Amino acid sequence: MRLFSARAHTPTAAERVRSILAAAHSLTVVSDGLHTEVRRLDGTDAMGHFHLHAPCDGDAHLVGRVPVRLELTDIAPTSVRDRLRARVTVAGLLAAPYGPDATTSTCMEFGQAVLEDADGRAYVTLEALEAAEPDPVATSEAGMLTHLADHHAELVPLLLRLVRPLPEAGVLRVLPVRMDRHGLVLRLEYPNGHRDARLPFSAPLTHVDQAGPRIHALAATARRLSHTSHLLT
């Protein structure tokens, strides 16, 4: 029997930023010394509230412009340890102080976008951000992961059989922590820390409806592998 050995691809920094912007329920706008919480993002991409455009040439355009910073956090929907998955900061300039009651898109001159996560810090250009597409599961990921954890909990330890390299003994708990077009990520929690393990799909998703069949395919592969439930204590 051939062991599970699909290559694990991961989203680019630009794709992750674009997906976080698409899935965000809220963000913090820091401008002119004020922190404003924007909570009307449900179902709407943050880039629909802030129209990003390229910087103008020269310094004349800086006169009267107001520095602004958009801050977003990516939180795991399941009850894992250390639920903060990433921070995204988009900095730039506004033509006037931010108006929290504005009903139209706010025009923002792009400065830089930064993704910070467990792997470090990555800078994303406007060109890369505009070229990236939100992940097909970005806006549905939270519901799918909580459904998997709450209603199909028996599948999670089964999927542990696919983890490579093999987990060390002493795993206390396993939960799904992330999903994207390329695969499902499990968090293995130990007494003194945790480890994330990516289980790649056989092919990248092109539509959210493909997620369920891909997870069932992973489970079918796991059932064909030798039993490793002794890893759970």
Defining key terms:
alpha+beta; Split barrel-like; elongated; 10 strands; 233 residues; 3-stranded antiparallel beta sheet; 6 helices
Explain briefly what this protein structure is.
The protein has 233 residues and is an alpha+beta fold. Helix content is 21%, strand content 33%.
- β-strand number: 10
Give the N-terminus to C-terminus distance in angstroms: 28 Å
Number of domains: 2
What string gives the helices and strands in order? Answer: HEEHEEEEEHHHEEEH
The count of helical stretches stands at: 6
DSSP strand (E) fraction?
A: 25-35%
* Low-pLDDT residue intervals, each spanning 5 or more residues: 1-5
- Helicity range: 10-25%
**Overall morphology:** elongated
pLDDT averaged residue by residue: 89
The largest β sheet comes out as: 7 strands, mixed
Structural class: alpha+beta
Write down the Rg: 20 Å
What does it look like?
The protein is α+β, with helices and mostly antiparallel strands and 233 residues long. It has helices at residues 13-23, 46-49, 126-131, 141-151, 155-159, 211-223, and strands spanning 27-31, 34-38, 50-53, 66-75, 84-94, 106-117, 120-124, 173-180, 183-190, 193-200. It folds into two domains: 13-131, no CATH class; 141-231, PNP-oxidase-like (Split barrel-like, Alpha-Beta Barrel). Strands 1, 2, 3, 4, 5, 6 and 7 form a seven-stranded mixed beta sheet that branches. Strands 8-9-10 form a three-stranded antiparallel beta sheet. Strand 9 (183-190) and strand 10 (193-200) form a beta hairpin.
